[in-house]
C-alpha cells in the first residue's frame, strides 16, 4: 500500500497555509494529483475555471472534474509525470461547445527517497497568445504578399545598409535578380553623385534625428545605365528605439524625367522662337481674372522685363479702340467657345502694331472654364503686305482708281450710304485716239481723265475705271440735286480740251446718271447690279444724243 492509499489526505508541502494563499493569488491554474489520479489540491483560479469551490475538487477524480472529452489527454500527461518525467504540452480543453487553448506543465513530486508521490500541474491559458501568433502570421503573410507584388521597388536593409530582402520590381528596375542584390550595400548601386546625400540622411535616420526621408535618386543598372527614381525611406525600431531594419520604397521615374527634359527643351526652343518673332505668351486665370505675360511679351509691349506688371485692364487700354471688340475674351471666359484666333492693333513700345492672337480655353475636370492661354505675335508687316495686295487687287494699275473688283468691295461694306447716285462715263472717240496717236497718248489721256474725275467729286465718293474707256462715279448719301450737280461738273471737266505735247486730243465724254435706293432684302452690291444696268441705259442714251448732234451740227 502506498503512502497515498494509507493516508489519502497526506499533507504535501504545497498544502502549507502560507503556500496555499500564494498559489490562490496566481492567475494560472495549479493542482496536485496523487498516484490514484485524484485531486489533492486545486487553487482558487483552477476551481473558478471549473465553476466549483476548491473543497469540491479535492478528493475528486481527474475524470470527474476534467470530463470525458478532456480526460484521455490529461491522464496521459499525468501518467508520464508519475513515471518521473516532467512534461509540458499545449492542447485544447473543451467545456461543452467552448474550447480553450492551454499549456500544461506536469512535474513529478519526489519524496526524500526519490520516489514519485504526486504530480504538480500548472496550466496557463494561451488562447490570446495563439490569436496573437495567428495575427502575426497573417500580418507577415500580407506584408510578404504586398512586398513581393508591389508595383514599385521595395527593399529591406539592415542598419549597415546591406539589403536583406529585395522585391521583384526593384530587381527588374536594375536589370538583376533578387538573389544578386541580397547582401549588397545600397551605396554600391547608387550613382556616385547621389551617394553622399543618401548616406547622410540614412545615418540621420539611424541616429533618430529624422523618422523618414525622401529624395530624388539615381541608381546604376548592371550595364552602367542610369535609372532615375524617387526614394522614400523609413526605419523599423525595437522597443528601446534602436533601428533594427530600414524599409525603402523606390519608384522608377526615368520616363517621367525624360518627358520633363523633352518638355523643357521644347519650351526653351519655343521661348527662343518667341524672342525672334516679337511677341510672347500670356494667360488668364478665369476665377480671379488675373492676367500674366511672359517677359518677352512684357518687353515688347511696355519695354519692361518685369512679367505681369500690366493687368488685363491696362492691356485692354493699349488695344486700338477700333479693333478692341475683336480682342474680347468674354466668349472664352463664358466657356461658349474653346479656342479662337483674332487680329487687332496694339499700342506697343514701338508704336501701333498689328497682332495675331491665338487663344485657347483650358477646362477643369468638371468642364468649367479654368484658364485661358494665348500666344500673341506681331504681324504688322504681313498685315501691310495683305492690305497692299488687297489694294492692288482692287485698283486699276494705270490710273490708280478703283477697278470693278475694288468697286464691288466698297459696295459690299456695311458703311455704304444710301440714297446712292451713280454716274456712268464713257469716253467718245477714244479708239481713234489710240489708233492715230498711239497707246502712250491714250494712256496719258486715261490718267488725265482720272485726275479730273477725282477733282470733280468729294474724297468720300468712289471713282472707278471699269475697263477700257469706261468709268464710274458713286456718290453715297447724296440728294438728287447734288448728284445732278456732280454729273454736270464731270461732263464739263471731261469735255474741256486735253493737250498732249503740242497736240490737242480730240476727245470728249458721255455721262449717264441714275439716282436710287437699295431694294428691300438685297445687299448694296446686289442693288448696285440693277442700278448699274439703269446707268448704262442712261449713258448710251446720252451717247446717242451726242452722236446725233455731231451728225447734225445745225
From TrEMBL:
PROSITE patterns: GGDEF, PAC, PAS. Pfam families: GGDEF (PF00990), PAS_4 (PF08448). This is Diguanylate cyclase. Residues 418-554 form the GGDEF domain. Residues 213-265 form the PAC domain. It comes from the Bacteria. It comes from Sphingomonas glacialis. Residues 21-85, 139-209 form the PAS domain. Gene3D superfamilies: 3.30.70.270, PAS domain. The lineage of its organism: Bacteria, Pseudomonadati, Pseudomonadota, Alphaproteobacteria, Sphingomonadales.
